[in-house]
Write a structure and sequence with these properties.
Elements lengths: L19 E5 L6 H4 L5 E7 L3 E3 L4 E6 L5 E5 L5 E6 L11 E3 L6 E2 L4 E5 L1 H6 L6 E7 L10 E3 L7
Antiparallel strand pairs: 1-2, 1-11, 2-10, 3-9, 4-5, 4-8, 5-6, 6-10, 7-9
Length: about 150
């Protein structure tokens, strides 16, 4: 009878961060990501402009430039969402963080918006990486396909 007071344990899942084409990290034209130096994961060549949290947790870091967000789960899994290659050089131009450090996020919550066309016109590759520096040891073999933001991948 008192079971309805118990919180449902949220099922662990990893979602696509943005609409676009899912690709393996090995195809990202940057050695730090393609060689998995920061950890294993996957990437999406975006067709959308809103990035959602790929998993639930706490925003451990939200870069002031808006190009990257670190999320940590209550179980200690660390995840970094990195939008584009060398986009830190834009100093936040074209990025709007929707959360701040310390915020709790649920998988699928919007975390960053970006101006895809404006950033691409400046010559930046907007491939968006999701990497797991620690706490998640399974390999990613998700293939290559069209995905939508919030679509379950794992």
């Amino acid at each position: 009878m008192l079971n309805f007071f118990k919180k449902e344990k949220e099922e662990f899942k990893i979602l696509s961060p943005v609409d676009g084409e899912l690709i393996p990290l090995a195809k990202v034209p940057d050695e730090v990501f393609s060689q998995k130096i920061m950890g294993d994961g996957f990437a999406v060549t975006p067709s959308g402009t809103t990035v959602v949290a790929p998993l639930s947790g706490t925003a451990a870091s939200v870069f002031p430039t808006g190009h990257a967000v670190g999320i940590q789960t209550k179980d200690g899994i660390e995840c970094i969402v990195h939008i584009g290659l060398d986009t830190v050089e834009l100093n936040g131009e074209g990025f709007t963080p929707l959360i701040k450090q310390g915020d709790k996020v649920k998988a699928g919550d919007p975390i960053v918006r970006f101006e895809r066309e404006a950033i691409a016109q400046k010559g930046y590759n907007l491939v968006t990486m999701v990497v797991f520096p620690s706490g998640y040891e399974k390999e990613f073999d998700l293939g290559q396909k069209r995905v939508t933001a919030g679509e379950r991948l794992v």
